[in-house]
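Researcher: Next entry in the queue.
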Amino acid sequence: MRVRALLAAALAAAAVAVAGCGQKAAEYGGTAENWPVRDLRIMAPAEPGGGWDATARAMAQAIERGKVIDKSVEVYNVAGAGGTIGLAQLVSRNRRRANELMVMGLVMVGAIATNDAPVGLGDVTPIASLTTEPEAIVVRDDSPYRDVDDLVADMRRDPRKVAFAGGSAGGTDQILVGLVAKAAKVDPSKPKYVAYSGGGEAASAILSGAVDAGVSGVSEWADQIEAGKMRFLAVSTRDALEVGGESVPSLREQGLDVEVTNWRGIVAPPDISSAERDRIIEAMEELHATPGWKDQLERNDWTDFFLTGDRFTRFMASETRRARGILQQIGLVEAEQ
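Model: Structure for this entry, 337 residues:
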């Protein structure tokens, strides 16, 4: 209820800020041919250091280096409630502003359901999916858990004593923890899950021993793995995955029938014109073709997952249904009556 109240307050404040912005819409969007009239702004709806932030900054760098537009690109952060605070701001405060974009993904789909958010992805303008990335379970380098079997054994003995760090409640990370528990025949609601709004905070919790393991996208642990401070236990792909020259076994290979990947995409505010939407999609297609973006995919171990426009809209609707079903199974969302 507290999260929903915060979201409602954010919407109310944004509604005041947006009053009268219809008269100024041209200042932000202009005609499709000269989009964007102002500098492009990309919101990462989380703290710095996580996957959305990394995606937004990778986009900005590739757009500028590839000269996709003739304006500068600014990345800014609006953290809270699995991205739904940022979503509320995009829907109300930035309505009709075609120079505003927001990174989002499966994490936000889950957060909307678990927070019973007053705004959803049906309130934005879908632009494109960009990447998909396997999840990884990691532990501190000196952890007693040498593989997933060790972790699962403790979960079966007393799941309440096994704590995982991850991203926002209801997001991909918590979905994976619930699916792992379910596959291990453990009540999915029992393992302790500690949600953090940024990857840096989750890493600190793992390294300090505040939690037993961490769950997030593979790329978010790369620096800690390379520094020898953490170890991979498993990835969430069907088969083993080579990461930094190391073959990391999948959950399936270790006896747990679990497979899930975390996708990320980009959306625009509501009420932009169809011509502006088409021009933004065209710009994302140009971004997708740049050598700089291909370099970012390789550098971050992201898998290319490019869908635009109506195809992306249908995909989001499908993912919303799928995520809600999983969250119901693990007890985070009530079944719809």
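Model: Residues 14-30 have pLDDT under 50 and may be disordered.
Researcher: Noted, moving on.
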